[in-house]
Amino acid sequence: MGELGGLLFGITIWAIPLIFAVTLHEAAHGYAAHACGDDTAYRMGRISLNPLRHIDPFGTIILPGLLLALGGVMFGWAKPVPVNFSRLRHPRRDMVIVAAAGPAMNMGLAILAILAVHLVPVMPEAIRGWFFLNLENAIFFNLLLAVFNMIPIPPLDGGRVAVGILPRPLAWRLARLEKAGMLILIAALFLFPLLGSRIGVDLDVFRWLVQGPVDTIGNALVRALGP
After folding, report:
1. Is the dihedral of CA 32, 33, 37, 40 positive or negative?
2. Which tens digits make up the pLDDT trace of 15-70?
3. Which of 153, 147, 144 is nearest to 188 (CA)?
4. 26 is catalytic
5. Looking at beta carbons, which pairs linking 190-193 to residues 24 or more positions away fall under 8 Å?
6. pTM of the prediction?
7. Which H/E stretch holds residue 158?
8. Tens digit of pLDDT for each residue in 89-112?
9. Of 26, 125, 136, 178, which is the active-site residue?
């Protein structure tokens, strides 16, 4: 395999599963919102399984490409599907359904990828390794997105689910964190580990909240469904 072939091989085994993981996550939100009475995404053409409808130039292409070039962990996002929660038939209940639809899609895709591993031995030998690595990365990305997005801090899906099921006084307090939610996550996931390394304390919140559950769930699913 030449240098160009090796580059294309590396890009495709990471890009294909990541693009489908993040774009189908958003598509699931749109389908759920439409089923619950909000046609905002439908009117904007976002009710689609076509990944091209959901690609965010920076979050889906540029950032993952930079991370791949730098040898970092691949991560990204798609364009958020617009949801008008006031148009939902039962706003609190349906908000939970719409929010949970994205992580549920990722869990479903991870399960499908694990089941598809059974097909590896019957694939043509020339693409067998490529096919297996795509499935392996699809399992990882989809479980990563499912677990990460269910962290119960708005504006993540888990935060919206929590707002929908908590008693109203607690839900209101949690909902007020939405504007600061991403700053809290960035601090917890990136700044805390740096601080911990300086003071000699393990503050790797990502490993506690995301990597650990991803490994546990992935191992359990592979044991139950894998070859």
Report:
1. negative
2. 899 889 988 999 999 999 999 999 998 888 888 878 878 888 887 778 777 766 76
3. 153
4. yes
5. none
6. 0.88
7. helix 157-165
8. 999 999 999 999 999 999 999 999
9. 26
